[in-house]
Amino acid sequence: MGANEGRGRTAAARVREVSTPELYRLNPFRIVGLTAVATRREVRERRLRVLGVLEVGGAVPDGVPADVTADEVRAAFDALGNTEHRLVDEVFWIWGMPTDCGCPLQLHRKHDNAVAAYAAALDAEADRTDDHPTPLWTEAASCWAVVLRSESFWRHLNHRVEKLGDRRLDESTVDGLRTALPDALLAPLIEVATRSAEPRRFTGYLALFGADRHAVEDARTAIADGTYRRVEALLKDLRGDLDGNRVQSAAERAIEETAPLFDRLEEVVPRAEFRRTASLSESIAVVANNIGVALAEMRGASASLVREVFAVARRCSRDPETLEAVSRNEIAATVYVPTPSLEREPSAARICGALLHAVAAAVFLAFKLPREALLAVIFLGAVAGALTNCFVAARPWTSPGRYPALLGLDVGIYLALSVVETPYWLAVAVAAALLYVAPFVRVQRGL
Asked: Transmembrane segments in this chain: where (predicted)?
C-alpha cells in the first residue's frame, strides 16, 4: 500500500511541476512532433530521423516547431523515455483517433479540443498570436470539465498504464492524477492572471473548469497573494512612518498607493467574500484615520491633504464604529486645523522702515517747499509722519513686506516728481498721501 501511495504522490508531483504557462509549449510530444499515443518504436524511429537531420544542419523536419534547438529536441526524446513523466505529458497533448483503447470518439475529440484551446489561449495571452483569448479559454474550460467528469478518460489512462508496461505505474498512479489534475489545470491560468493588469478577466473562467467552490476560492486567493503581500508591506511602512513622525510622507503614500491595491483586491477577492481582504481594509482605514489626526495637529498642515487621508479611511472601512470615528475626527481636524498666529510685536526692521518712509517724505518736501516752510516740513513730515508710521508698524495686520513696498513707492514717485516743476500744494498732497494714507491701506485681508 505504501508503494502504491508513493506512485500516486509521484504522479501528482509531476503534474504540479509541469503546470505552468509553458505547459503545452514545453510538452515533449509537441517538440518532437508526435501524438501522445506514439509507440516506443515510433519514438525511436522518429528520434533517429529528426536528430539525424538536425545534427547535420538540415531543415527542421515537418511536425517539429521552428523555434526549438537540436538540444531541446534531444532532451524531449529523453523525457519520453521516462514512463512516469511520459504518462503526465500524454494527458496534456493530442491523442488523435482512438485505436485500441476502446474510448468513445467523442472523448478523444473533447480532450484534443481542450488541449488545443488551452494552448492557443496561453499563446494569445503571451502575445504570440493575435487570437482573442476569451473564446479560447471558454472552449478549453468547458472541454476539460467534460473530460474530467468522464470515466472513459480515467479508463483511458489506466489503459495507457498497461500499454506502457512499466512496473512503476499502476492504478494508484491514475488515482494520483485524478487528485491533482483539477488544481493543475487551474495553475497556468492563475499564474497568467497574477501577472495581468486585469486579473478580474480571468476569475470568471475558474469555475468553468469544473472545480468546486473551495478550489475556485483558493485559486482566487492565489491570484491575489502578491497584492496581499504588497498591502501588508504598505501597512507596515505607514505604521513605521507614523511612529517615526514622518506624517506627511505617510499621508502621501496612503493617498497614492492604497487605491490601486484595493481596487485589484476587490476585483479578485472582494472583502464581502474574503475575510483577509476585509481585515486588511479595516487595518488600513484605522491607520489612515490616525495619519489624518496626526496631520491635522501639524502646524501649517494642508486642509485638503487632511481631507484626502480621511477619504482613504472612509473608502477602506465598512465598520460602522470605524466610520463614525473617522467622520468625527475629520470634522474636528478640518474645523480646528491650527493656523500660524499673527506677529503682534513690531520688529526692528519694520520700525526702521517706518522711520525711513517718514524721512523720505521730509527730504522730498524740503527740496520742493520754500525755506520758510522748513519748520512745518520738520514738524508735519519728520516728527508726525514718523510717529504715525511707527504706530502702523506696530499693528498686527502689518506684514513684513509693507514698508519695503512703501519705500519702493517713495523712490519711484519722489524721484519722478523731483525732476519736474511741481506746485507746492501737489507736492504736499503727494507726500501726505504716501505718509499718512498709504500705510493704512490693506492690500489683502490679514496684512
From this structure: 348-367, 374-394, 424-441
Torsion on CA atoms 74, 95, 14, 134, rounded to nearest 10: 110
Between the CA of residue 52 and those of 69, 198, 250, what are the distances in Å? Answer: 13, 46, 65
Mapping DSSP to helix (H, G, I), strand (E, B) and coil, where does residue 417 land? helix
Evaluate whether 169 touches 87 at the Cβ level (below 8 Å): yes
* pLDDT band at residue 339 under the 50/70/90 scheme: very low
Q: Assess whether pLDDT exceeds 80 at residue 337.
A: no
pLDDT, position 322: 93
- The answer, yes or no, to whether residue 343 has pLDDT greater than 50, is no
Q: What CA–CA distance (Å, rounded) separates 373 from 360?
A: 17
The model carries a pTM of: 0.69
- Helix (H/G/I), strand (E/B), else coil: 82: coil
84 touches 154 (CB < 8 A): no
Residue pointed to by grid coordinates 500705510: 439
160: pLDDT strictly greater than 90: yes
> How many CA atoms lie within 13 Å of 324's alpha carbon, on the beta-carbon side?
3
Sequence-distant (6+) residues with CB within 8 A of 32 are 43, 46, 47, 50, 63, 64, 73, 76, 77, 80
Q: What is the CA radius of gyration of the chain?
A: 42
Q: How far apart are CA 330 and CA 282, in angstroms?
A: 17
pLDDT at residue 346, rounded to an integer: 54
Cα-Cα-Cα-Cα torsion 347, 351, 357, 362, nearest 10 degrees, comes to -170
Give domain limits for the chain: 2-123+148-178, 214-335, 348-440
Please name which of 16, 165, 166 lies closest in space to residue 91, comparing C-alpha atoms.
16
Question: Tens digits of per-residue pLDDT, 4-16?
Answer: 778 889 999 999 9
Inter-residue contact 178 to 154 (CB < 8 Å): yes
**Which phi and psi (to 5°) does residue 165 adopt?**
60, 40
Three-state SS string over 9-67 comes to: HHHHHHHHHHCCCCCCCCCHHHHHCCCCCCCHHHHHHHHHHHHHHHHCCCCCCCCCCCC
